[in-house]
Amino acid sequence: MFEEKQPAVSMEKMVWMYEQMVKIRYYEDQMAEVYMEGKTPVFNIGAGTVPGEMHLATGQEPAAVGICVHLTKDDTVTAPHRPHHHAIAKGVDLKKMTAEIFGKETGLGKGKGGHMHLFDPEVKFSCGGIVGAGIPHAVGAAMTSKMKGKDWVAVAFIGEGAANAGAFHESLNLAAVWNLPLIVVVEDNSYGISVPKKSSTSVESNDLRASAYGIAGAYVKDNDPIAMYKVAEEAVSRARNGQGPTIIEIETYRFLGHFQGDPELYRDQTEVPGLRQMDPLLKLRKMLAESESINETDLETMEKRAKQEVDEAYQFARDSSYPDPESALKDVFSS
Questions:
Q1: Domain Dehydrogenase E1 component spans what residues (predicted)?
Q2: β-pairing, 195-196 with 191-192?
């Protein structure tokens, strides 16, 4: 559980983390509703407002904010198919991201990529979509940093299921051999789609695999944003100072199903109410409220500001136009 003592984290950083977590949570809550517009409840039949499948990260906010608080625009982040919390924490343009998810011309990829293929070169963010696909890309970014003599860091976020894929092992082996500034963050939300971790993984936590590559590993319990902050701070410092890769696994909680509309027959339905009692957003809010620097009015102002940004992004996406069907392949193939 969360420690009750006051953490050794600056108030400025805690405020940033809280506001980003509010923004992520509100964004995902809104998307959960918008996604079902125009769809039938069973198997999400119908194109609706937002096309394609939808994977939301409600409850997994600490993994993203705890590390992105230490990053700059020059650092690279790659994300899996559940990418919104990473994108928001990294500073991806929220309006363009939402328009992309809606399939609109004003989107990051002009509506051609959608929810699972978000790219924003302005802040060095990309989403591979396929399980584990972002890790090799992050290795490439880390190698670029080293070859150019920069202190840039590359972070690959993955689910715990992807830690059993070949890309995970091959990438970490090369990153270790070449001593690259790579951090792999494993978000253990207990399920790889519908398969419990204990049924697919032989080790208790994937940070233990770090010793096989001769690199650093760390584990964060209880979805704790402050613990994630501290572990990430050390990992980023190591990477910037030429001390090589790190694997971080965080015990996090997926409040929703694998995808929107998931009947979750594999899940004990008493599980989610219990997890929500440990909501990291409420824990961090309580921590701030009990400090001497932040009052209730300050918290409400942060929350209002975050929600207003999200509301504006959704309105921008709704107001934007769909791509002209006749130019659908424009910018896809070169002449």
A1: 52-326
A2: antiparallel
